[in-house]
């Protein structure tokens, strides 16, 4: 087991990375002070069916009530109704200020459970038990929340977990499209911060259906370290943290305009990164070799922009992005690999760039 540390202005917490952590939850949680009075495990149906019993069994050692609440899977479930139902359940079960919420699942559950924890009785403790590759990103950093029909992640709070227990063996049951989705955030971390890591990924990872355990472990640790470093410097996204949104301005627009859950988060981000790379080359004096990176991304079978979406509609959704001010879109672009910057881009420039991008990148 390896431990990384996240240090923000409000909290310091460990990220444990290992295997079979689910069997050791009680001793890990017993270290929390003040002692936990009850536990609520939140999960989705797929993950719940696979791992809930094990989690409950493992928490018996606490000798405190353990409750479980399961919501349907998919990003459409990061919703007001599931948020409300989770809070109702927590109140009915009598969770108090020393209770603990455990997020057992991917980024959807992590964001939802974190938001429930961050707002229940003005904030109680929670732990992330990420079960997807993507959640190496979402479980770290304390952004929690739900989607609004008008925009992705539009309602939420910053609420850091007490700890993140990343058990790599969870990924054994993860379907390939979800591995691909999570790998997009790994690529993002490399592109925004670490050219050597990008070269490693390019040279060492060619088949996502068969990533050897030692390489998987390496890329997870690398991705988490990059995320932790950025979050440590700018917990509340006053500046630097915005670079983590590379690929997300168009990505979020694609997710909300397609209907949440229609396209995976990572697939949408992969499209968004290709667009951001194209724009970086159009607007900057760069040596990015955009086409080369873009072709490498495509090699993993990331999809193209869904055929029903056009440039005007996507621009409209991008203007609602949280980085936008007074309706002006701010894009995260790259000067070079590892050198991101944020730039306000005029609507007409964006619209033309989107049209150009869609000419080559739209689903046939
Ligand atoms: N908070 C943040 O900083 C942050 C960062 C990035 C992404 N996100 C959010 O994360 C979400 C996407 O996360 P995700 O890709 O993990 O999606 P997800 O949680 O919806 O999981 C994807 C699918 O995989 C299934 N699944 C999860 N773990 C499994 C396992 N071990 N075995 C089998 N099936 C499993 C789930 O049931 C679901 O169907 C989005 O809502 C996105 O906005 C948040």
Ligand list: nicotinamide-adenine-dinucleotide
CATH architecture of the largest domain: Up-down Bundle
Strand content: 15-25%
Average pLDDT level: 95
Number of discrete domains: 2
Describe the structure.
The structure is a single chain. With 364 residues, this protein is α/β, with parallel strands linked by helices. The chain has two domains: 2-173, Rossmann fold; 177-361, Dehydroquinate synthase-like - alpha domain (Dehydroquinate synthase-like, alpha domain, Up-down Bundle). Helices cover 45% and strands 20% of the residues. The protein has 13 helices and eleven strands. The chain has helices at residues 25-30, 45-59, 80-92, 107-119, 135-138, 176-193, 195-204, 213-233, 248-258, 265-283, 290-298, 311-318, 347-361; strands at 2-7, 12-18, 39-44, 66-71, 100-105, 125-130, 143-148, 151-158, 163-167, 329-336, 339-345. The strands form three sheets. The chain has a seven-stranded mixed β-sheet with strand order 1-2-9-6-5-3-4, with helices on both faces. A hairpin with a 2-residue loop joins strand 10 and strand 11. Helix 10 (265-283) packs antiparallel against helix 11 and helix 12 (311-318) crosses helix 13 (347-361). The longest helix is centred in the middle third of the chain and has 21 residues, at 213-233. The radius of gyration is 20 Å and the shape is globular. The N and C termini lie far apart (46 Å). The model has no long low-confidence stretch (mean pLDDT 95). It binds nicotinamide-adenine-dinucleotide (NAD). Nicotinamide-adenine-dinucleotide binds next to helix 2, helix 4, helix 5 and helix 6.
């Amino acid at each position: 087991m390896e431990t990384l540390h996240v240090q923000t202005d409000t909290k310091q917490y460990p990220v444990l990375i290992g295997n079979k952590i689910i069997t050791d939850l009680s001793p890990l949680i017993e270290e929390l002070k003040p002692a936990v009075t009850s536990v609520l495990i939140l999960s989705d149906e797929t993950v719940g069916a696979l791992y809930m019993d094990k989690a409950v069994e493992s928490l018996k050692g606490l000798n405190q009530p353990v409750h479980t609440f399961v919501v349907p899977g998919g990003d459409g479930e990061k919703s007001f109704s599931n948020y409300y139902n989770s809070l109702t359940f927590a109140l009915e079960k009598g969770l108090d200020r020393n209770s603990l919420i455990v997020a057992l699942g991917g980024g959807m559950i992590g964001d939802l459970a974190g938001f429930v924890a961050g707002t229940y009785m003005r904030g109680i403790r929670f732990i992330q038990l990420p079960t997807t590759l993507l959640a190496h990103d979402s479980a770290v950093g304390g952004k929690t929340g739900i989607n609004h029909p008008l925009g992705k992640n539009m309602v939420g709070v910053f609420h850091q977990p007490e700890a993140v227990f990343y058990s790599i063996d969870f990924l054994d049951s993860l379907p390939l499209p979800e591995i691909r989705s999570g790998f997009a955030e790994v690529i993002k971390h490399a592109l925004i911060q670490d050219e050597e890591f990008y070269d490693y990924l390019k040279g060492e990872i060619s088949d996502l259906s068969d990533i050897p355990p030692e390489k998987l472990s390496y890329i997870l640790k690398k991705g988490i370290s990059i995320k932790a470093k950025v979050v440590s410097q700018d917990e509340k996204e006053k500046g630097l943290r915005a670079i983590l949104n590379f690929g997300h301005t168009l990505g979020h627009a694609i997710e909300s305009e397609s209907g949440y859950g229609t396209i995976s988060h990572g697939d949408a981000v992969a499209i968004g990164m290709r667009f951001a790379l194209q724009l970086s080359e159009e607007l900057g004096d760069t040596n990015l070799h955009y086409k080369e990176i873009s072709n490498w991304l495509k090699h993993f079978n990331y999809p193209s922009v869904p055929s029903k979406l056009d440039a005007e509609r996507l621009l409209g959704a991008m203007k609602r992005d949280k980085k936008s001010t007074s309706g002006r879109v701010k894009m995260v672009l790259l000067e070079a690999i590892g050198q991101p910057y944020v730039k306000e881009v005029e609507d007409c420039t964006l619209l033309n760039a989107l049209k150009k991008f869609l000419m080559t990148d739209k689903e046939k």
